[in-house]
Amino acid sequence: QPFKGAASFAHFRLFALCTAGRDEGSFRFELAALLDHLRFYLRLLAALQAQGAGLHGLDVRVTDLDGTRADAVAAVVFAPLAEEFPQAQARFDPERVSGRIYYAGLCFAIYASDATGQAYMLVDGGFTTWTQQLLNNAKERLLISGIGTERLFSVFGAGET
Question: Is the pLDDT of residue 10 over 90?
Answer without folding.
Answer: no
